[in-house]
Amino acid sequence: MQQQTSEHYKRALRAQNQVLKKAVVDEQANSASLKEQLKQKDQSLRKQEQEMDSLSFRNQQLAKRVELLQEELAASEAKGRKGKSKGDSPSQHGLQTQSVFDEDLQKKIEENERLHIQFYEADEQHRRQEAELRTRLTELEKDSEQHQAVVDGLTTKYMETIERLQSDKARLEIKAQTLEREAKDCRMRTEEWINHLKFSDYNSLNVPPHNRRHQLKARDVAGQALSFIQDLVAALLNFHTYTEQRVHIYPLDSSIEPISPLNQKFSQYLHENAAYVRPLEDSFLQLHQSITEDTVTVLETVVKLKSFADNFSSYTHFLQKILPYQLKSLEEECEAPLCTAALTMKNHELQGDMKRVTSVFEKLQNYINLLALPSVQQDALPQSSTSAVFTQLAAFLHSLHDAIKEMSKHYNQKAALEQELPTVTQKLCTTTECLVGSLSSLTSSTGKIATFFSNNLDFFTSSGYCPKGCTVALNPLQAESMLANKKKAAGYIHALRKPRPQSVPYRDALSNRRILTSSTESREGLTQQVQQSQEKIARLEQEKEHWLLEAQLGKVRLEKENQRIADLEAQLAAALGGSPSSQTAAASTLAQSHEEAETEQKAAGKETTLCTSLVLLLYWLLHVGDEESREQLIKTHYMVRVGELTTQLQISDSKAVHFHSECRALAKRLAIAEKSRETLSEEVKLANQNITRLQDELATTKRSYEDQLSMMSDHLCSMNETLSKQREEIDTLKLGSKVHTFVVSAFCSLLKFKLLSRILLSTIFDSLSS
Questions:
Q1: Which candidate in 14, 50, 214, 500 could, as Cys together with 464 as Cys, close a disulfide (CB 3.0–4.6 Å)?
Q2: What are the mean pLDDT values of the chain's consecutive 10-residue runs (770 residues total)?
Q3: 3-state SS record for 247-279
C-alpha cells in the first residue's frame, strides 16, 4: 500500500512538473518573441532616424536654394526698377518669374512642414510602442522568474521525495529478499522432508533395475532422429526463403514497381521464419544431449521433450498465420493478365496442398503435445494409450510425406508451365528452380523421418523400465531411486575390491557413538566459551591500553599544573609576606603572567584557555578556605568546559551530516549525468548507423537506376538499328508492285512497334524521375 501511494505521488509530481515546464517554455518563447519585436522596432527607429537625417539634409539644401532664389529675386527687382523706362515687357517677364519662384518656395515649405509632422508622429508612436514593449518584457521576465522559482522548488521537493521513496524501496527490497530467502529455505526443507518420506515409502516397493541396453538404444535412436530433424529444418528454411524471394518477383517485380500490400505483409512474415524453424533443431539437440547412459529414458523423465513440443507448436501457429497469405498470393497470380487456364488450375491444386500440409502439422502438434504431457503431469497419459499415440504419430508422418510429395509434383508442373510464358525472366526461373529443389529435399527428409519412425515403432511402444509384476509406467521418483541404487551398487562393488577393516560390535559402536556425541557437544560448548573469553580479553586489552594512555596524559598534565601552582603559591607568598613594593611587584608579575596567558590563548587556542581559567581558579582557591566551595568551583568550571566541548561536537556532527548529504546529492547527480551521457551517445550511434544505412540504400538505388537506364539505352539503340534495317527492306520492297500489300502491313507494324517503344520509354523515364 505504501509503495502504491508513493507511485501515485510520483505520478502527480511528474504531472505538475510537466505543466510547469510547459508554462516556463511558453513564457520563454513569448519573451523571445517580444525581444525580437523590440529588435525590429529598434531597426525601424534607426531607419526613421536615417530618413530624418536625409530629410534635414534635404531641408538645408532647400533653404539654401530659397536664399539663392530670394537673392535672384532681389537682383531681378533691382534690375526691374532700373529698366522701367525701357518698356513694360521686361517687368511683366520679371513678375512671372517671381510668381513661379514664390509658388515653388511655398510648395517646398509645405512639404517640409508635412515631413516634420510625419516624422514627429512616427517618433512619438515608436516611443510609445517601445515603452509598452519594455513594460511587457519586464512583466514577463518577472513571471518567468516566479515560474522558475516554483519549478526549482518543486524539483527540489520532487528530488527529496524520490530519495525518500528510493530509500523506502531499498528497505522494502531488502525485507522482501530476506522473506524470499526464508521462504526458499522453508520450501527446500519441506521438499527434503517430502522426498525423505517418499523415499522411505518407496524403499519397500519393487523398483526395476537399470537397463543399460535400453539407454544405449535410446541414445542411438535420438542421434538418428537429430540428423533427420536437421535435414528437415534446412529444407524448411530454404522453402520459406525462396518463397519470400518469389513473392518479390512474381506477379510484380519489386525492383520495377511496388508489390501489393498483401504480398508485403506475406513477405514480412516469411522473413521471420528462422525464429520459428531454428528452435526445432536446438530443442531436439538438447533432448539428445539429455539422454545418456547414466539416465533413465521414459516419457515421464524426458523433460526436454516439452520444450521441443512447445517449439513445434510455435511453428505450427506460424504456418496457420501465413496460410491465408499463401492462398491470397496464389489468387493474385491467377488474376495476372498472362496467367493461363492450366496455371490457374495448378494454383488451385497448390492451395489445396498447402491446406492439407498445415492440417497435418496441426495433428502432429497434438500428438507430440500428448507425448510431452507425462513429463509435466504424472499419470497424464496411461500406458495403454502410449502405443496408440505412437502409431497415430507414425501414420500422420506418412501423411505429411504424401502431402509434401504431392505439393512438390504440382510445383514442378507449374514451373514447367511458367517457363512457356513469353514474359518470364531469368530471375523468376532461377528462384522457381531453387523453390522446387527445396521441396524435393523436404519430400526426401519427411520420407526418411516417416520410414525411421515406422521402423523403430516397436522400440517406442515397448516399456524398457517397468517394475516386476506391474503394468504401471515408471514414475520420476522410481527413476531417481533406481539411479541412486545404481550408484550405491557401483560404490559397493568398488568398496569390495578394497581391503575392509575389522568390524566393530554393534553395542560397542552404539556406546562409542553416544560418547562421541556427548564429547562433540561439550567440545562445541567449550569452543564457544573460549571464543567469548578471547573476545572479552581482546576488548579489555583495548580498554586497558586506552586508559593507560589517558593516565599518562593526565600525569603529564598534573605535573604541569603542579609546577604552575607551585610558582603561583611562591608568587602569592612573596606578595602577601613582603613590603608594599614587593606586593606591587607580585601583582605586576601576576598581571604579566595573566597577559602572557591571554597571549598564549590567542596563539594556542583551547589548551591556553584552560590554563588561564585554571590560573584564575587557583587564585580564588587560595583565598577561599572552605573545601565545599572549592569543590563547587571546580565542578562548575569543568561543567562549563564539558558544555562547550559538547556544543562544538554537535556543531561538528551537524556539519559532517550536511557535507555527507551534499556528497550524496552530488554523487546522484553525477550518476544521472553519466546515464544521460550514455543514452545520448547511444542515440548518436544509432543515428549514425541509420545515416550510413540510408546512404548505402541511396547508393544501391542510384546504381540500379543507372544500370536500368544504360540497359534501356542499349535496348533503344538496338531498336533503332532494327527499325532502320526494316525501313531499308521496305524501300527495297516498294520497287516491286506485287508485294504492295505486304509492304503496307509491314510499315503499319513498324509504326505500331515504334509507338509502343516510345510509350514504354516515356513510362520508364517518368518512373525514374518520380
A1: 214
A2: 60 72 79 83 81 79 78 76 55 65 77 81 84 86 82 80 81 82 79 62 51 80 91 92 87 77 88 91 89 76 86 93 89 83 90 93 90 75 76 91 93 88 83 90 93 88 59 59 66 60 65 68 70 78 77 79 83 66 46 47 44 47 54 75 78 75 78 83 85 82 75 74 78 62 55 60 57
A3: HHHCCCCCCCCCCCHHHHHHHHHHCCCHHHHHH
State the burial class of residue 377 (Cβ atoms within 10 Å of its Cβ: 0-12, 13-18, 19+). exposed
Tell me, yes or no, whether 586 lies in a domain: no
Interatomic CA distance for residues 127 and 115, integer angstroms: 18
Cell of 342: 492450366
Using the structure block, give the residue that is written with the C-alpha cell 513510362: 763
* Domain presence at residue 667: no
Residue 7 C-alpha cell reads as 507511485
Q: What's the structural domain count of the chain?
A: 2
Amino acid at 69: L
C-alpha cell at 234: 534446412
Contact in structure between 586 and 571 (CB atoms under 8 Å): yes
Gap between the Cα atoms of 101 and 328, Å rounded = 97
Q: What are the cell numbers at 686?
A: 544509432
Distance of CA 459 to the CA centre of its chain: 51
Quote the CA–CA distance of 686 and 119 in Å, as a whole number: 59
Residue 729 to residue 749: CA distance in whole angstroms: 13
**387 vs 371, 373, 472, 621, CA distance in Å?**
10, 15, 14, 113
Distance separating alpha carbons of residues 259 and 134, to the nearest angstrom: 62
> Does some domain include residue 14?
yes
Range of the domain at 19: 1-67
**Which residue, 446, 477, 496, sits at the end of a domain?**
496
CA atoms within 13 A on the CB side of 369: 12
Determine the Cα–Cα distance for residues 706 and 71; give it in Å rounded to an integer: 84
| Predicted pLDDT at 619 | 47
List all residues 6 or more positions away from 77 whose beta carbon is below 8 Å from its beta carbon. Answer: 94, 98
Rounded distance between C-alpha atoms, residue 192 and residue 185, angstroms: 10
Residue 720 CA to residue 714 CA, distance in Å, equals 10
The per-residue pLDDT for 579 is 44
- Is the distance from CB of 305 to CB of 299 less than 8 angstroms? yes
Q: Is residue 290 a contact partner of residue 302, using CB atoms and an 8 Å limit?
A: yes
- C-alpha to C-alpha distance for 563 and 551, rounded to whole angstroms: 18
Question: How many angstroms separate the CA atoms of 136 and 128, rounded?
Answer: 12
User: 14, 33, 67: which is the final residue of a domain?
Assistant: 67
Residue type, 507: R
Q: Which of 129, 160, 111 is nearest to 41 (CA)?
A: 129
* Residues 6 or more apart whose Cβ sits within 8 Å of residue 574: 582, 586
Q: How many residues does the chain have?
A: 770
For residues 334 and 332, give the distance between their C-alpha atoms in angstroms, rounded to a whole number: 5
Cβ contacts of 97 within 8 Å, gap of 6 or more: 76
Cell 508485403 found at: 264
C-alpha–C-alpha distance, residues 770 and 768, integer Å: 5
Q: Is residue 611 part of a domain?
A: no
pTM beyond 0.70: the answer is no
What CA–CA distance (Å, rounded) separates 518 from 516?
6
Calpha distance 266→495 (Å, rounded): 67
C-alpha to C-alpha distance for 77 and 98, rounded to whole angstroms = 9
In the chain, the amino acid numbered 533 is S
CA-based end-to-end distance of the chain: 61
d(CA 264, CA 249) in angstroms, rounded, equals 12
The torsion region of residue 267 among left (phi > 0), alpha (psi -120 to 50) and beta comes to alpha
Angle between helix axes 304-334 and 261-270 (nearest 10 degrees) is 160
For residue 210, give the DSSP letter: P
**Three-class secondary structure of residue 378 per DSSP:** coil
